[in-house]
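Quick one: structure tokens for this chain, please?
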Amino acid sequence: MSGKLDVNGKKTRVRVKSRSSTDVTAMETELEVLAGQGRTDGERAAAGEEFMRFRHLYMRFLAEHKSKIDWEKINPPKANLVKAYDSLLPSDAVEDVAGLLSKLAVVKLNGGLGTTMGCVGPKSAIEVRDGMSFLDLTVTQLVTMNERFGADVPLVLMNSFNTHDETQKIVKRYSELPITIETFNQSRFPRIGRDTLLPVARTLHSDKTDWYPPGHGDLYESLHTSGVLDRLLAQGKEYIFVSNVDNLGATVDPAILHYMARTDPACEFVMEVTEKTRADVKGGTIIDYEGAPRLLEIAQCPADKVDEFKSITKFKIFNTNNLWVKAAAIKRVVEQQQLSLEVIVNHKQRADGVNVIQLETAVGSAIKHFAGAVGVNVPRSRFLPVKSTSDLLLVKSNLYTLGSGTLLRNPLRIYPTVPLVKLGADFRKVSSFLARFANMPHILELDHITVTGDVTFGKNVVLKGTVIIVANHGERIDIPDCAHLENKVVSGNLRILDH
């Protein structure tokens, strides 16, 4: 037997397997000390509840080290598990859209920072198109939709301790708009030392680098614990549309909402999937595992199976992380403690050189816990993430037009997929990226571009086919105004060669 923290930071008794007893007991002792450092009864109780959730995650981490996924039991999803989007009633044929929307809430996962793109603060605050940030576009979409249908679809933001304060300031800017915005924080869990498997934090109020938000799989419990889920249910909200705040294609789709509400009311969970391309080989995918739907992430794959996971022959679709979930079902699985999401072990190194582990979960892996769960194979247009400045080039270009907060593919683009863009380290930061383009190049007929080194682009540059631009170390390439590059390689001395 070993201890288990209750919501007040105290221990109750629970049986664990003997092999892990030493690790668990040591962890519980550390967590009890940290929780007891709360400055008020409320803070101590909140820390105790949070650490209780962390302890459950830690227990699964220890258990999963001994019970890896059996690759031989993995199969592509059965035909009835993934619905074709075209089999759904088209959005423009859905009746009483206003009635459906009255039962909907939109949740955006807003816990990430813009550090990978060289920005400070929440990633959702980065300007992506025509002076508008991710949040600006989301709010504009919902305001437009609410006004069109006379609806009141609220926006709910799941922040992390990294993004909360700044997001609260940003949200105030929308206070005069006809939209309800709620926020809540996901959990703050302690990073653990790679060698000790114990928290590196020595106090509850230590530096932020000792703590981490445990991935978007924390949504369900944090939504419930915050009280937001119960408030949504009290307002008559039956369905929750969840997506990453940086996916500009994740808009409310009446066709999918209609499927859940009217076509298949027994369905509690819909995962939007789409066809893999060469840019998506790392994306998680729906599988059939021992006869049940599961989400398989690349982090779960044995090292010798990673290439097979990336192949589009066996795994042809991937998870967009656009999810539709029944609110009452979330309440049930949380309150009945049914959630057991696969643990993603994320190895990090702090600035001071300390090697740490973050135990995380993915929101889509909950698919196995919901009745009637299915995937819907949606058009590629519903997956438009901006993870890097390479993605930013696409959404800022003439490949898209912007209307009412929604990016629409330019109909003049004749190819079904978007170009593959690979910008080098000199373009990684948003500020550097913007400084290197006089304006965005025209890329309607572009298939692939790779740019490395010190390269700048003049005004009204046109790129077609495959274009590779490489500035050697110590050299610079300035693509002149109105340059037209089609199937060209541009080298360090600005020679233009047929590709």
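The longest strand covers residues 317-326.
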